[in-house]
Structures are given as structure tokens and as C-alpha cells.
Write a structure and sequence with these properties.
Blueprint (H helix, E strand, L loop, with lengths): L2 E3 L6 E6 L5 E5 L8 E3 L10 E5 L3 E3 L6 E5 L2 E8 L2 E9 L3 E9 L4 E9 L6 E5 L25 E4 L6 E9 L3 E5 L5 E5 L6 E7 L3 E7 L3 H12 L13 E4 L20 H12 L6 E4 L4 E2 L5 E5 L7 H10 L3 E6 L2 E2 L1 H10 L2 E2 L7 H6 L3 E3 L4 H15 L5 E4 L20 H4 L3 H16 L5 E4 L1 E2 L9 E2 L7 H16 L5 E5 L9 H12 L3 E4 L18 H16 L1 H14 L4 E3 H4 L4 H5 L3 E4 L3 E4 L8 E6 L4 E4 L6 E3 L2 E6 L7 E4 L9 H12 L5 H6 L5
Length: 691
């Protein structure tokens, strides 16, 4: 191809292909792995940059009528059919801002561009899902896709329930690309053409940031600070959690012992059993249903039959140094729903499979861009906070949110632009009222998030399935989330979906979950390891594994909190795929099961069943101490194989670190011994001195 240059070689260089007339923009930076090139996709007869109107797609071509090309910037303007088209790129050798616009732009609905890709280029980021589409594809049996998105297409529109999305991806060629705004978009990572990455976003203009560095960690940190800084909850939020999906108030405990407790029997059973088994629990949360009404969520009023003496229950938990969280949604039920519609505080529902469900249950989705609606909704949240609730699980801010152009929010934006923005408004509204009641002493957990959400909460990985591939999905989701700006994350240990909880998978999930910032065990089919569906119903081994990793996670809470603060200050996440810090080592890009937790701890998560030994990569540049046998010290830069009985996840400490996890084998033996003595709930009840 013959190129005409409008300037000498610069960091931002512009040329025109003499054969096609399409512009070629090359960004070469001092710390480049490879230059970033906007160029034509000749295989599909496409140019480098385009915009769409309602009638046609127009590729920018020819020489611009105005051009300015300095060392670190490029500005060009084309005139065509009464329209002015501008491309502006400027930067500072590590960060470039780009903007594509036109005037007039009232009929423009989309912009896009093509970037050159090399044969071995690796792409990751964008979302929690392993692959796009229905979430169950992400834990489909036989799935091979892991962190690398090469060969995949991704729609940048939040989908349930692994709902963390951010239009940022990282390339192994030393750049990261972020798109500003919340319009839906689309990425094609070399699927249509193995030499091209195609990016396109709706909206009248397009702007973004190109981060450049040979060190992926520097790119990830810069992005995280741009969309953050991340919210850091109090230290207690980094200690173990327990929850169930549905708290039935039964007349007997799991073993048939009659209940005499003044509170919900399932909650009491959990607390008494964990206390007797010496399983640390600092946070307990109650999911829906917890309130009045057929949906269990009417008017922020407790269901007194399901949760009798709720205020006293909170005090009882607090007396055991346990804080309570509640499930909430971005809609209201009951009388509040009628009032919201009357006052115009609601948003019409999306026309999809959730519409009938939402309408049948008379839900009203809150428009958080309406200041009065937000303030009114926050009064309900404040009421629960004043009762002693210390935070919330923020569910359901994606599937019933509309995504059409005909629905307008109070801020004047269409639902099409607000679909990705809605979770940000939801968590911000919750954070605002929590901060008023409990400054610096609360935690909130959204499942959905977009650019900016990390400033207001921590996150959990949605309703992941329970099979082994569900755990595989969680391992990938944890690392993807950390790369796109969500450093504080946890998953439903054992998986969410009821009916297929697996003992072996749950044991491996407990081990993996220990090395995520949030360790939340539940819902476990609304049962517990002492009440399994099949023999052994009282599973002493699984209880021991739970205790082992709950104890270890509790021990690491200071470390987790300190590194969460560093994530806020520097952008460096806690969960770090190996390539983040060891990009020059090819194996670090391939071993997606192995990651570091903070700077000093390396773990290699196991997701498959019947794995009795495991091979993984230890990065070069350090020696690594086996936390299970401190006499075993390995040179980095090699694959090693270790034995992995059910209770054991490979854990290695970077030599020279002050981290001391103690005698893990002794802790497991102690846990087995304690779990072997089945607690007597009748005796445990009597010790509470309830009247």
C-alpha cells in the first residue's frame, strides 16, 4: 500500500492510502510494544473511521481541508455534503485523548473505527462475562474461552446477572482503550478479520482515551483512577460473610430440634452453629423476601411473621459483633409504588420478558436522575439504616431497565443512553444516604456497574451457576473485574442457582473465595454444610474446609484492607492476573488460573473436579515459598506441580514478604476435629438466655 504523509514522522502521524483514499493514523510512543494504528479494513471494504446516520454509513476519506500535526497531537477537518467532520487526537506519550465529531450531528447515531491487530495480540477486559450473550454461556459445559477475548464479539450493553461492564480493554501490545459516556457499543476482536479490532458506539460523537505503556499495570492503574477512585468500606467488610436466599421461619432447626428463639430460625441456626464451630462471621445479610407483601419488599416494612422482633434481632447480632445487611432493589412495591407513579418518580419498564413480571407485581422503577424521586426513595433506605442495618445488597438494576429511545429520564437523556448509566445512579443514591447516616462505616454491594460505579460500592459476581464451570466463570470474572476498575469483588461461594450445589466444587470455591476481597458464603440452596441434601448430611469435611478458609480470610483482613486503600490511591487492584506485573513472561499470559492477591500472595485456583495434583506457573524475578510447607522454596520462572487434596489450594508467598499465614495444615486438622463434634442446638439456645 502506498501512503501519502501530511507530516514528518511524529508520535501521532497521519497518512492517506493512495489506493483507497482512507486515512491511516499511527500513534507511536516511546514505551511502545507496537504502534496503535487506525487503518482501513480492506478485506471488508471498510475505511478506518466512520459515522452512521439513520440512512447510511459514511467512511471518512480523502485529504482533510484543515490539518494540524504537532509531535503529540493531530487535528483534522473534512468537509462533505454540507457537514464538517473533525478528528482530534492529543496526548503526552502515555495517554492520548481522541474525539470524533461532526456538525451538524442531529442525524448521527453511531461512530466507529478499525484498529490494526497483530497475529499474537491478546485482548481482555470489558465485562465479567466469560463470553457475551446469555450468562449461562459463560459456564456452559466444555467452554474454552478464558481471559483472552481474541476471536470474540462483545456488545457493550449491561446484561444480567454478571453485570459489571466498562468500555475499557487491555491489549498485550502495550495499550488500553477506554470509551467515554454510556451509549451502547460493540467490539469485534479479530473475529470478522484476524487483523482488525472493530469498535463502534452509538451517539452523536465519540471520545475516549488511549493509554500506553509496556507495563499493563500502569495502564490498568491509570484507567482505575480515571473511573474512580474506588470506594473502600470499613475494615470489618473484609471479614467473612454468611447469607441465605430465602429465610423461612421454621418451627424446627435442620436436625428437628424445636426452635424457641425469638428471631428467624434460619438466621439463628446459622449464627449458633457458626459460633459453636468457631467459624468467623462478621457480616450477615438477608436477601428478599424480608419485607411485607407478595414480593417480600413492600414499603421498607419488616414481615413480622418471617422476621419477628427484627429490631431486637439486629441488637442480638450486634452483641456478637455481627453487622446486618439487607437486599434492596431499584424499584418500590406496595403503597410506595402507587405514590411513585402518582408523583412521576418512576421510569416505564423495558419491553422484554421481565415486563409482565414487573407489571403483575405492581413495581415502580425509580428514576434516580429526578432529585425529588431520589430524595424520597432515600427516606426508605434511611429508615432501615436507623434501625441498625449497616449496608445493602443492591440487586436488579439491569434487566427491567428500558433501553429504547422513546423513554426519557428526568435528566433529559433517553433510556438508550441511560441503560448503562442506571446502575451508577442507583449505587450513588444508596451511597449518599448511607454516608449521611454512617459516615465511613457501611458497605453496599451492587451486582451491576459501569464506569464510575466503583466510586460508591463493592461488587459481587451475580447469579453464577453452581457446576464446576460456574467456579471457572467466577475465577475469570474476578480477574476481569479487577482489570476494568472494580478492585473489590466477591462471588456467591458454591454458586447461586438452586438444586445443583456440588460438595467438591463448593470446597474449591471456598478456597478461591478466600483470596478475593469479599468472602461471602451463600446461598448454599438455603441449607448449610451441616444440612446437605445427600449423605453425609452433616458434612464434617466441608464444614472444616469452610472454617479453614473463613479463618484464613479473617486473618488476611488487615492485608486486604491495606491493599484496598492502595487500590483507591494508586489504582492497583488486589486481584492481579499474572500478566499485570509479569508481562514480559509469555506463561503469565497463558496461566489464567493463577493470580496474585496483593503484592505478596500467589494462588492458583482449581475449578475442575477430581484434581489431585495441579501444575501452574511461578513468575520469574522472585523466589516463592509454599505456604503449606515453608521448607519448600521455588525459583520463579518455571511450572511446578503440587498435590491438591480437596482442602488445599496452592498458596505461595513471595520470599522476603512479612506475610505469615501460620501452620495451615494444623489449622485444617483442628477444623476437622471441631467439625467432628456436632453441636447441640438445644444447648446452644439455652446459652442465649432468651426470655
Amino acid at each position: 500500500m502506498v501512503l501519502f504523509s501530511c507530516a514528518n514522522q511524529k508520535l501521532v502521524d497521519f497518512k492517506v492510502d493512495s489506493e483507497t483514499g482512507f486515512p491511516v493514523i499511527s500513534i507511536t510512543y516511546s514505551n511502545a510494544v507496537k504502534p496503535v494504528i487506525f487503518l482501513a479494513n480492506n478485506a471488508q471494504n471498510e475505511g478506518s473511521i466512520f459515522f452512521e446516520t439513520g440512512d447510511e454509513k459514511i467512511w471518512i476519506n480523502g485529504q482533510p481541508v484543515v490539518k494540524m500535526n504537532s509531535e503529540n497531537s493531530f487535528i483534522a477537518e473534512w468537509k462533505t455534503e454540507g457537514r464538517s467532520i473533525k478528528v482530534n487526537i492529543s496526548g503526552d506519550k502515555t495517554k492520548y485523548y481522541f474525539n470524533f465529531s461532526a456538525y451538524p450531528d442531529t442525524d448521527i447515531v453511531k461512530w466507529g473505527f478499525n484498529l490494526a491487530a497483530t497475529p499474537d495480540e491478546y485482548f481482555t477486559g470489558l465485562f465479567e462475562h466469560v463470553v457475551d450473550g446469555d450468562q449461562k454461556k459463560s459456564w456452559e459445559k466444555g467452554i474454552k474461552t478464558a481471559l483472552n477475548l481474541r476471536g470474540q464479539t462483545v456488545e457493550m450493553l449491561i446484561k444480567p446477572t454478571l453485570s459489571l461492564y466498562t468500555p475499557f480493554y487491555l491489549s498485550s501490545n502495550g495499550y488500553g482503550l477506554f470509551i467515554e459516556g454510556t451509549w451502547p457499543g460493540y467490539y469485534d476482536f479479530c473475529k470478522t478479520n484476524p487483523e482488525i479490532v472493530n469498535v463502534q458506539f452509538e451517539g452523536p460523537s465519540l471520545e475516549g482515551i488511549l493509554y500506553t505503556s509496556k507495563k499493563p499495570a500502569e495502564i490498568v492503574k491509570s484507567h482505575a483512577l480515571h473511573v474512580g477512585p474506588a470506594f473502600v468500606p470499613p475494615k470489618w467488610a473484609f471479614r467473612p460473610y454468611r447469607w441465605r436466599d430465602t429465610h423461612t421461619n421454621k418451627p424446627v432447626y435442620y436436625d428437628g430440634t424445636a426452635t424457641n428463639a425469638p428471631f428467624n430460625s434460619m438466621l439463628v441456626e446459622d449464627i449458633l452453629m457458626m459460633e459453636a464451630l468457631d467459624i468467623p462471621c462478621r457480616v450477615y445479610w438477608i436477601d428478599r423476601p424480608w419485607a411485607k407483601g407478595p414480593m417480600g419488599y413492600d414499603d421498607f416494612e419488616w414481615d413480622s411473621e418471617r422476621f419477628p422482633n427484627a429490631q431486637e434481632m439486629i441488637h442480638w447480632l450486634n452483641s456478637k459483633n455481627i453487622d446486618l445487611l439487607l437486599w434492596i432493589a431499584p424499584w418500590v412495591d406496595g403503597e410506595m409504588s402507587s405514590f411513585a407513579r402518582q408523583e412521576g418518580y418512576d421510569v416505564p419498564f423495558a419491553v422484554n420478558r421481565w415486563t409482565n413480571w414487573a407489571q403483575e407485581n405492581a413495581l415502580s422503577l425509580i428514576d434516580f436522575t429526578n432529585p425529588e424521586a431520589k430524595k424520597w426513595w432515600q427516606q426508605g433506605i434511611a429508615k432501615m439504616l436507623k434501625q441498625g442495618i449497616k449496608g445493602f445488597k443492591l440487586d436488579r438494576s439491569e434487566e427491567i431497565v428500558p433501553e429504547t429511545h422513546d423513554i426519557i429520564f428526568a435528566n433529559g437523556k433517553t433510556a438508550r443512553e441511560m441503560r448503562n448509566a442506571y446502575p451508577v445512579e442507583y449505587v450513588r443514591a444508596t451511597n449518599e444516604i448511607c454516608s449521611t447516616i454512617y459516615p465511613d462505616d457501611f458497605v453496599i454491594f451492587p451486582r451491576a456497574g459501569y464506569s464510575g460505579s466503583s466510586r460508591y460500592g463493592v461488587f459481587w459476581g451475580g447469579d453464577i451457576g453452581s457446576p464446576a464451570e460456574g467456579l471457572r466463570c467466577a475465577i475469570i470474572a474476578a480477574q476481569r473485574s479487577s482489570l476494568i476498575g472494580f478492585p473489590l469483588w466477591g462471588s456467591d461461594i458454591g454458586g447461586y442457582w438452586h438444586g445443583d450445589m456440588d460438595r467438591e466444587v463448593t470446597a474449591r470455591w471456598l478456597a478461591f473465595g478466600c483470596f478475593t476481597p469479599i468472602f461471602e458464603f451463600g446461598p448454599t440452596e438455603d441449607r448449610a454444610p451441616w444440612d446437605m441434601r445427600s449423605e453425609p448430611n452433616y458434612d464434617a469435611q466441608l464444614i472444616a474446609i469452610w472454617r479453614l478458609y473463613a479463618k484464613l480470610h479473617d486473618q488476611l483482613s488487615d492485608y486486604s484492607y491495606a491493599n484496598a486503600v492502595k487500590a483507591k490511591e494508586t489504582g492497583m487492584p488486589l486481584i492481579r492476573p499474572l500478566f499485570l506485573e509479569y508481562a514480559d513472561q509469555p506463561a503469565a499470559w497463558q496461566d489464567w488460573q493463577t493470580f496474585t492477591y496483593g503484592p505478596d500472595i500467589l494462588v492458583s485456583a482449581i475449578w475442575q473436579k477430581n484434581i489431585h495434583e495441579h501444575t501452574f506457573y511461578l513468575p520469574a524475578g522472585s523466589k516463592w515459598v509454599d505456604a503449606w510447607d515453608k521448607n519448600r522454596i521455588y525459583e520463579g520462572g518455571q511450572n511446578i506441580t503440587v498435590e491438591t487434596p480437596l482442602y488445599k489450594i496452592p498458596i505461595f508467598i513471595k520470599e522476603g514478604s512479612t506475610i505469615d499465614l501460620g501452620d495451615l495444615n494444623a489449622l485444617y486438622r483442628e477444623s476437622l476435629q471441631i467439625a467432628g463434634n456436632k453441636p447441640d442446638l438445644s444447648s446452644l439456645e439455652k446459652m442465649q438466655n432468651w426470655k
